[in-house]
């Protein structure tokens, strides 16, 4: 069969990221004797012309909730000229919303490798509809009856065929794009690789916890497989930065050492996910961290999510105590210091969030950004996943799983946050706070000496237009009262979130309008 694997556009066009799931499904299809092509509409150079899709025997649409609007448009354009199979995380969250809108289509719940092969076998006439109706992960409507099987998850990622990055059109665009931490290194390739799926932890808000509930627990690829998949591209395209995506990278026995050895051999730098509670003697002590950084580690991502310890651990189930944060700060500051970039996130607006929690969050952000070389993603406004543990406490989420595709298309903002939650206070925390503290981050620059590369901190700031400088000036000005409060830990009549949020919203809108009119981007 000839199969198109389509990644529809989200509501915004973020940095192009490698569609690992589609590459893996493609590898399985190819091994079973089928032809496949990946069509990633998030590459803005790919025209939004759906006619060519009609020439395929089957079109697979991989969707998260933000991609629904575009996926719907594609599905309607294709009509019934070819078979359509929906997959991706939204199909697990609310399969009914798709099955009700497109009863003639198939849908895959969970990981798509085997269910898609099963659907293809049926469509080729090799298996009956009754056989298909009993296959894990496969959903469809048969004579008005909705068949919805349990989600499918691969038991062992090492049993899957190796993915081939060269199957992506415009591969260079995925590799040679802006490197946030090392501005100016765009000509040096950076590669994100999926080395594990799932997570050992059980945070109540997280999509991985929801996946684990359906059977998608933590599974990792072996280093041998990772090397087989990445060596051609690292050698062939001069990759200098490698980001293994593994939620539990530092608990994956032997993997940090293996990647460190690989980094030394291939002369690249690497970054990975971590947790604040991993800075203990047995996992990451000062000596170990220094060894990793000498071996190319330059970045770790780890989240705190809530300022208040009780809320963080009883509601969000993050299992990170304040003492863990203290340990992490001490370990990093007194071993590698600013040579290690940290990315940390918080969330607000979740069920059980309080004003006190947000104030503690501000204090932690202030402290961390004075002691570590840290950049904050967010705070982000809570986005509920229907079926997650936290969504059960969430009144808004009860109406979320509606089985109604239009509900998602109309009511979700660019970030995935329900539009009703983007008020002034939310704007203050998610935009102003983020802009302010992130100015303290120190970037890196790359030096080359006889073919060996090294990273150095730079005091040079990213180039900014006059308008952006004015924008940051306004942020700093608006933030002065908050700085005074942080200094004296005084929070009586804390009205700044509303005032600053209101101002920031207007300034940001004007700035965005200016960028749109002049064709510039932030
Ligand atoms: S938030 Fe992080 S640690 Fe918690 S379950 Fe999700 S991926 Fe795992």
Question: How would you explain this protein's 3D organization?
Answer:
This protein folds into three domains: 2-148, 3-Layer(aba) Sandwich (Rossmann fold), CATH 3.40.50.280; 172-417 and 428-457, Alpha-Beta Barrel (TIM Barrel), CATH 3.20.20; 466-518. Helix content is 40%, strand content 17%. The chain is built from 19 helices and 17 strands. It has helices at residues 20-31, 68-78, 89-93, 95-101, 113-123, 129-133, 171-175, 207-213, 223-237, 255-266, 286-294, 309-315, 322-333, 355-371, 395-398, 405-411, 424-438, 466-488, 496-518, and strands at residues 2-7, 35-40, 58-62, 83-87, 106-108, 138-142, 145-148, 189-194, 196-197, 219-220, 239-245, 269-273, 297-301, 341-348, 373-381, 444-449, 452-457. The chain has a seven-stranded mixed sheet with strand order 2-1-3-4-5-6-7, sandwiched between helices. The radius of gyration is 24 Å and the shape is globular. It starts with a strand and ends with a helix. The mean pLDDT is 91. Iron/sulfur cluster is lined by residues 199, 201, 203, 206, 208-209, 247, 275.
């Amino acid at each position: 069969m000839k199969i198109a694997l389509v990644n529809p556009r989200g509501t915004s066009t973020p940095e192009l990221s490698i569609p690992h799931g589609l590459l893996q499904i493609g590898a399985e299809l190819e091994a079973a004797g089928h032809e496949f092509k990946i069509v990633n509409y998030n590459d803005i150079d790919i025209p939004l012309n759906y006619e060519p899709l009609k020439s395929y025997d089957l079109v697979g649409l991989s969707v998260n909730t933000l991609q629904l609007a575009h996926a719907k448009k594609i599905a309607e354009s294709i009509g019934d000229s070819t078979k359509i199979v929906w997959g991706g995380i939204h199909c697990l969250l609310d399969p009914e919303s798709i099955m009700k809108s497109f009863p003639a289509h198939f849908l895959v719940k969970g990981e798509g490798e085997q269910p898609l092969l099963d659907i293809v076998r049926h469509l080729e006439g090799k298996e009956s509809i009754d056989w298909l109706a009993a296959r894990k992960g496969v959903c469809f409507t048969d004579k008005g009856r909705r068949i919805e099987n349990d989600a499918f998850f691969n038991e062992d990622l090492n049993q899957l065929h190796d993915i081939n990055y060269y199957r992506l059109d415009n591969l260079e665009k995925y590799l040679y794009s802006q490197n946030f931490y090392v501005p100016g290194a765009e000509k040096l390739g950076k590669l994100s690789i999926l080395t594990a799926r799932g997570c050992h932890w059980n945070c109540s808000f997280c999509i991985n916890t929801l996946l684990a509930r359906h059977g998608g627990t933590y599974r990792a690829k072996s280093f041998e497989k990772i090397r087989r998949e990445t060596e051609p591209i690292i050698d062939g395209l001069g990759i200098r930065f490698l980001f293994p995506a593994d939620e539990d990278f530092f608990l994956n026995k032997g993997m940090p050492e293996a990647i460190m050895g690989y980094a030394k051999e291939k002369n690249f730098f690497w970054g990975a996910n971590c947790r604040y509670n991993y800075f203990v003697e047995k996992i990451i002590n000062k000596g170990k961290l220094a060894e990793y950084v000498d071996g190319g580690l330059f970045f770790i991502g780890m989240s705190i999510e809530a300022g208040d310890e009780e809320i963080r651990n009883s509601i969000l189930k993050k299992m990170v105590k304040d003492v863990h944060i203290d340990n992490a700060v001490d370990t990093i500051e007194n071993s590698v210091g600013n040579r290690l970039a940290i990315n940390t996130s918080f969330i607000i607006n979740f069920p059980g969030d309080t004003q006190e929690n947000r104030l503690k969050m501000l204090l932690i952000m202030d402290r961390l950004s004075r002691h570590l070389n840290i950049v904050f993603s967010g705070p982000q406004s809570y986005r509920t996943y229907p079926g997650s543990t936290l969504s059960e406490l969430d009144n808004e989420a009860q109406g979320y799983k509606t089985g109604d595709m239009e509900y998602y298309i109309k009511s979700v903002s660019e970030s995935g946050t329900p539009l009703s939650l983007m008020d002034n206070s939310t704007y203050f925390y998610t935009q102003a706070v983020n802009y302010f503290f992130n100015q303290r981050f120190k970037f890196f620059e790359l030096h080359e000496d006889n073919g060996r590369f090294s990273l150095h901190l730079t005091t040079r700031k990213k180039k900014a237009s006059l308008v952006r400088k004015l924008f940051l000036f306004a942020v700093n000005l608006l933030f002065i009262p908050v700085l005074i409060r942080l200094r004296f830990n005084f929070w009586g009549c804390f009205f700044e979130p509303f005032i600053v949020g209101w101002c920031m919203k207007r300034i940001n809108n004007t700035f965005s309008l200016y960028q749109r009119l002049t064709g510039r981007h932030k």
